[in-house]
Amino acid sequence: MEKILKIGAIASGSGSNFEAIVLATKTGILKGKAKVEVLICNKPEKYCMIRAKNHDIPAFLIESGKQERTREDYDHKMIEILDKYCCELIVLVGYMRLVSKMFIDHFNGKVMNIHPALLPSNFIGMHAQEEALKYGVKVSGVTVHFVDAEIDHGPIIIQKCVPVYDTDTKETLSARILEWEHKAFPKAIELFCDNRLEVDGRIVRIDGEVKL
Q: How many independent structural domains does the chain possess?
């Protein structure tokens, strides 16, 4: 029987990428390969918690900024939960904080993030779509990458170009990019499950062709 990869998810908002990954484990490309064991959210009253409840996935609220002395203090709390559920891959699904090097090292670098731009040539941080429109770029996109201690910086796994139209608003561009986020993140996890990823410094080598 094929081993099922245990995933821990961390979110700060609505959790649409969380939902896409969960659905992929139930009926899509991750079925029989991976399972989302737990969700952690750092903000109260966010819809990701409802999504988790709807899928019978344990969800924990650990509010950031609540008596934490250091980032490591907060990350230790997350590690305790993720270890309890034996998580082997951590996915940041709209998590709006940096994780510490201690956190990354604890999971042996097996932490993934998704960003709504083409890193590093596009825009890092929280307002990538808005900045893309202001700058007038003709192409934006999606990047799934392993996480390191710098913001939106780690080794790149998958990228997908998304056109930017003259008539775009932040909302229309965000929606178009999000459609590809929901495909790219599960695909990156599938590659991980299938042992098709080899990380060599900043380079992620993929065994075989990748189609989204």
A: 1
**Domain extent at residue 46:** 5-206
212 within some domain = no
115 given a catalytic annotation: yes
d(CA 86, CA 70): 25
Q: Which amino acid is at 65?
A: G
The model carries a pTM of 0.91
Return the CATH number at 38.
3.40.50.170
Secondary structure (3-state) at 32: coil
pLDDT along the chain (212 residues), means of 10: 90 97 98 98 96 98 82 94 98 94 96 90 62 75 92 90 90 93 98 96 92 86
Sorted by sequence, the CB contacts under 8 Å of residue 138 that are 6+ apart come out as: 163, 164
Catalytic residue among 76, 106, 115, 182: 115
